[in-house]
Amino acid sequence: MSTLFDLSFYVTVPFWALMILAPTWRHTRTIISSPWIVAPSVVIWAIVALPVLDTMWSLVTSPSLAAITTATADPAVLTALWAQILAWDLFLGRWVYLDSRDRDIHPLLMGPLLVGTILLSPIVFPVYLALRTVVRRAPDAATAQANRVTV
Q1: pTM
Q2: I need a surface site. Which of 10, 24, 31, 113 has the fewest CB within 10 A?
Q3: What tens-digit pLDDT sequence spans the chain (151 residues)?
Q4: Distance of CA 140 to CAs 69, 136, 143, Å?
Q5: CA–CA separation, 111 and 97 (whole Å)
């Protein structure tokens, strides 16, 4: 189970690396635009969650701190929750990256925010939402298309 726990993080790293270290590389946007980048994490989630699906189901249908505390003592449940958190953070980071590129927010500003999204997305996501209200608005579709045309 430890291997799958670790693997659930490592399968997200290439996508985070692209968004943080190569945000303007011509292939980064194409790769990150696919919502399927979360699929490796979801596959790991499925591998570990399916055998404990009854426990997972009871956690979401009758949540309580005591039940979650008890359930997370099971490495499979904890690994499934970890894979789910990582998949969600990656999906959220993907949206932030794509939105910031559409708004032309400088990558040097976005790099730390994306790292923050990996570490503390519930804090950093509202910070990004506040930032996007004060930066240049996203261009309309016609302007965006005109900016993409190269001569």
Answers
A1: 0.86
A2: 24
A3: 899 999 999 999 999 999 999 999 999 999 999 999 999 999 999 999 999 999 999 999 999 999 999 999 999 999 999 999 999 999 999 999 999 999 999 999 999 999 999 999 999 999 999 999 888 665 565 555 555 554 4
A4: 48, 12, 5
A5: 9
